[in-house]
Amino acid sequence: MGFLKKVSTALLVLGSYCCLAQTPGGYVLVPAGSYRVGGQRHLLNPARQVTVDSFYIAIYETTNRQFAAFVAATGYVTDAEQRHDALVFSPGLREFEWNNDSTACWRFPNGVSMGGIENKMEHPVTCISYNDAAAYCKWAGVRLPTLDEWEIASRAGAATTYFFGDKKTFIGRYANIWHGKDHLQADSSDGYMYTAPIGSFQPNAWGLYDIYGNVFEFCSGKIKPDESPTLAHARGGSWWCSQASCSFFNSVDIGRVHKRASFSNQGFRTVK
Amino acid sequence: MKKIAAVLLSVFAYSVCFSQEDGTWVEPSKESQAYHEYRLKISRPPDGLEKVLGLIAKVASGENDNVALPQKEYMALSMREKLTYHLIHAESYSQNCDAMPPVPDEHKKIFAQLPDPFGEYSWSQRQANFLAANRDSAIALISASIQRSNRVGINYKRAIIEVNGREMIPLLISTYNKDHKDHDILTLLMILMKNNEYAPFLSSSSYKKLYADETTSYQAFLNFNTANEALIIERATAFYNGLPKKG
Question: Given CB atoms, is A257 within the 8 Å cutoff of chain B?
């Protein structure tokens, strides 16, 4: 098992250098081309071929440190700080239940009573809305990935549901997710109940970390042309997602959330 | 602190599907499409409806369309008007993965779970608390509305689960039997039996298929046929008949 794990890691690292040589500034270059995306039986995201221009995608999810720099430079106030409507989780809630904590925001992602981010500067920023992520991108001169770009990068050349195959057996190697059968009891079996520092788990073959789990990553674009203008999409699942509820830690499922909603499992990764 | 009584499960309101191979948009069968729309319709209680709609329209604009009614205006509503407000307007947000991808041939299925009445919105803790605190009134008003309209909108179904309205089972069955169209009423009956841990249902093959495996329950369904329909109604009736009678 240990040998296989080492071989697997070596192949992933090798793959990241062979497939995509350039990683300037913490980004990986995805070459222009035609890519296979979607799932064979997925009605929202069917199997199909898409063509994209080249783009760079961040190796890591955007961190609290990066977001703090944005706020320090601009004085930006997030939706959750204005509206006091961030949604947070604590063990004991039923499936899909979240608490509205008026004190929660990116500085206190689980509410003031749970402490700040002083020791979590390398964790992904959370409790930010789609609009907040877009504001950050504008300031930083980057953008959110499109739904197709995110999927191409997450697959790292794989045609399977997960970049490591069609079975989620090994998801724990690559993703910070919820391993409990429900959310009534705390689960830190993989070392983290909430977010993990970026890069705590193994990357995909293109060297992207936390592409599944940790935080849902906002993407730009729509699934269908006439969907609500208040709707945003995010992909990859999060630390909250379990096999029983929201097993979106894969390359095919597409989440949906209000553009001003601020959840403590919601973050983003940038492209340029 | 507000707690979202976020919806256990939902079907996103997409009425159009892709073909699976080439990705071109393909309309699902007309029957499936019509049933999908039918499933997602909410019921509108008559009590103070115009007034409540007017108040919601005043606070809702653009991306703020789900905001809560200000406390002063909310408190000025009568109990019936408050109920109308809660039943037609969700004040908070749903989680990303709270949407279940659509499936083909919806009209031929009895799902394990109900769709989401409010898309990317969910009832807030204030709203869930209201329903729980006014359970008897909510049941009475929703029952009257169902009797008038012969319809159990998806918001009513969710509210019935929220208040554990098991005494409404005969009304639900009689409403279903009027046209045998709304299979989500059968789903609602099963959820009530499940939530109340009705032993004969928990030991049934239907329960095993729909709810026993938590990793598949949110996509699970039974094929719709008269045998499954009759079995669900029979079990729900037996469950109701075994409930303690009010004095």
Answer: yes
Residues contacting A198, CB < 8 A, separation 6+? A60, A61, A63, A122, A123, A124, A209, A210, A214
* Residue among A78, A114, A84, A115 at smallest CA distance from A100: A84
**Environment class of A4 (CB within 10 Å of its CB; exposed 0-12, middle 13-18, buried 19+):** exposed
Q: Directed axis angle between helix B154-162 and helix B125-133, to 10°?
A: 70
Beta-ladder partners of B18: B25
pTM (predicted TM-score): 0.82
A58 vs A145: CA distance, rounded Å: 10
| B141 backbone dihedrals φ, ψ, rounded to 5° | -70, -40
Q: Cβ distance A258 to A231 under 8 Å? A: yes
Q: Is there a contact between A145 and A219 (Cβ–Cβ < 8 Å)?
A: yes
Tokens at B18, concatenated: 């892709």
Q: Tell me, what's the pLDDT at A129? A: 97
Helix (H) or strand (E) holding B128: helix B125-133
Residue where the block lists tokens 């507000």 = B2
Residues 11-40 of B with CB under 8 A from A: 12, 14, 16-23, 25
State which H helix or E strand residue A87 sits in: strand A87-88
Among residues A98, A92, A81, A116, the alpha carbon closest in space to that of B2 is found at A98
Q: What are the residues whose beta carbons fall under 8 Å from the beta carbon of A25, sequence distance 6 or more?
A: none
Nearest to B20 among A41, A102, A229 (CB): A41
**pLDDT (tens digit, 9 = 90+) per residue, A249-269?**
999 999 999 999 999 999 999
Under 8 Å between Cβ of A216 and A158: no
Chain A contact set for B92 (CB, 8 A): 85, 87, 100
Which of B97, B211, B121 has its CA nearest to residue A178?
B97
- In tens, the pLDDT along A29-86 reads 999 999 999 988 777 888 999 999 999 999 999 999 999 999 999 999 999 999 999 9
Disruptive mutation site among B97, B103, B122, B162 for chain A (greatest number of A CBs within 10 Å): B97
Q: In chain A, what is the straight-line distance between the N-terminal and C-terminal CA atoms, in Å?
A: 38
Please state, in angstroms and rounded to a whole number, the distance separating the CA atoms of residues A116 and A123: 12
Tokens representing A232 are: 């945003």
Coil, strand, or helix at residue B16? Answer: coil
- Residue from A21, A31, A38, A23 nearest A52 by CA: A31
Q: Radius of gyration (Cα) for chain B, nearest Å?
A: 18
Q: Is A124 helix (H, G, I), strand (E, B) or coil?
A: strand
Residue with tokens 């409540």: B52
